[in-house]
Design goal:
globular, alpha+beta, D-Maltodextrin-Binding Protein, domain 2, five-stranded mixed sheet
């Protein structure tokens, strides 16, 4: 009798323990090569940030967390696995993110867009490139040509809007074909495609690697774009504290990127294979996009625009309730727990600030419209110069000393976006001041209006070096 009682007690205790010591899956789909998802994926994973914030009390007191990571090259396959119940979280852009919401609705389920990771209210990040030796200088030259793009991506949405802005019929005036970034890179090098539209960071990466030229930036379409994170609604309702923990890890990753952009640009290169110089273009001060975790009205509008575009493409038979799909309650709670003012961040539209001294004079830089930067291989921080004229003179000295240049950055004089200088066009006026532009047509227009000579980067660096001698 005693033995049976003891065994029964042990079985009861074991059952109770098993019920308490539950294993909670946290399955996160990320896009490592889509570098503006870094704060919601790669950085958290590589630095082990999530476990720092996971709840350990209350119903989670005896929880065992099974953290699973899966990497994707685009949002569509990530969405497929979320709908199949294989993932709890996912990071992707506005366009595929909206498709994620539509796909869940079609399956009788729901997902929530819980925060922004990085974006541009202007639209920068998406872009169109052509082979480097192409005669095409702007989108206006692409009529009648074939343009490839990853279908159902945010770049696809940008391309359709850009074509519409030209007054063209996307089915008659251009030929749009599906092509993933990894295929497009080889096709551009081989001259097999006339143009390619893509999302972060491929328009800049292909330029950086020397086989493409950027002829259109998403800001020209004037359509806000962003990447953000989604979560299964049922999961969020069951484990709201885990969702907040994930977002707190995102806040820390974002802070680290702001503090040491060069260091973490190197980390992203090591893990994802995207050149550190391109990562810095996005994540460094005055970057091409703004790391912004808040739901600004422009980003809400980007989701609405994406839904309308999906209808146009007949990818969504019905709309999506934006007010219930976008849920800012979790990111607000994460800001509060991290002692950060959400409303203050929501109202802040400024890019990551530049706090630097001129590398030649040592004086603090205060005019950021004409700033230029050089990243020298082997140096842990990027050199900053108060003017492009001085930066180009220093570039000549660095090359003379056989220094390898990882990146040369300048700010566009019209839009203010950060540019890779060797893909830019310049106007040098009679006073010797240099103004940078993304497109040749923009530089020519500046020259006609205000005078000055138009240069590409190679001719400009030669001219300034000769003058300096």
């Amino acid at each position: 009798m005693f033995l049976r009682t003891t065994l029964a007690g042990l079985l009861l205790a074991a059952t109770a323990f098993g019920a308490q010591a539950q294993t909670i899956r946290i399955a996160i789909g990320t896009q490592d090569t889509t570098i503006n998802c870094a704060a919601g994926g790669l950085m958290i994973r590589e630095l082990g940030l999530l476990r720092k914030y996971l709840p350990r009390d209350g119903k989670y007191k005896d929880a065992d967390y099974d953290i699973q990571w899966k990497n994707f090259t685009s949002g569509a396959p990530l969405t497929n696995e979320m709908v199949a119940g294989k993932l709890d979280f996912g990071a992707m852009a506005d366009f595929p993110g909206s498709l994620n919401g539509v796909a869940h609705e079609a399956a009788g389920r729901h997902s929530l867009f819980i925060n922004v990771l990085s974006g541009s209210v202007q639209g920068s990040g998406n872009g169109i490139v052509v082979p480097r030796d192409s005669n095409v200088q702007s989108i206006a030259d692409l009529k009648g040509k074939t343009i490839s793009v990853p279908f159902a991506s945010t770049a696809h949405g940008m391309l359709l809007r850009a074509v519409a802005a030209q007054g063209w019929d996307p089915e008659r005036d251009v030929t749009i074909i599906a092509q993933a970034p990894e295929i497009a890179g080889s096709a551009l090098q081989a001259g097999k495609i006339e143009a390619h539209a893509d999302f972060v960071p491929f328009a800049e990466l292909f330029v950086s690697r020397g086989f493409a030229r950027k002829i259109f930036d998403g800001s020209q379409a004037k359509a806000p774009t962003f990447h953000g994170a989604l979560v299964e609604q049922d999961y969020a309702r069951q484990y709201p504290e885990i969702v907040v923990a994930y977002l707190r890890a995102t806040i820390e990753a974002n802070r680290l990127l702001a503090q040491e952009p060069e260091k973490y640009s190197e980390l992203i290169e090591k893990v994802a294979g995207i050149d550190a110089s391109v990562n810095y273009l996005y994540h460094g001060p005055l970057g091409l996009q703004t790391r912004d975790l808040t739901w600004k009205p422009e980003y809400r509008q980007a989701v609405s625009t994406a839904i309308d575009t999906l209808k146009l493409l007949k990818k969504a038979d019905r709309g999506l309730n934006i007010d219930s799909f976008i849920d800012d309650s979790y990111i607000r709670e994460a800001f509060k727990a991290s002692e950060v003012d959400y409303d203050q961040a929501l109202s802040n539209y400024a890019p990551e600030p530049l706090l630097a001294k001129d590398a030649v004079t040592g004086k603090p830089i205060t005019d950021f419209k004409r700033v230029a930067q050089i990243w020298v291989k082997g140096e842990t921080t990027v050199r900053t110069y108060a003017s492009p004229e001085e930066a180009i003179k220093q570039l000549a000295l660095l090359k003379k000393a056989n220094q390898t240049i990882r990146g040369f950055y300048t700010q566009a004089s019209d839009s203010g976006i950060k540019l890779l200088a060797d893909n830019a066009w310049f106007v040098k006026n009679e006073q010797g001041r240099i103004h940078a532009f993304l497109l040749k047509d923009q530089a020519v227009a500046e020259s006609k209006t205000h005078g000055g000579q138009v240069y590409d980067f190679d001719r400009l660096t030669t001219a300034i070096t000769v003058t300096a001698r």
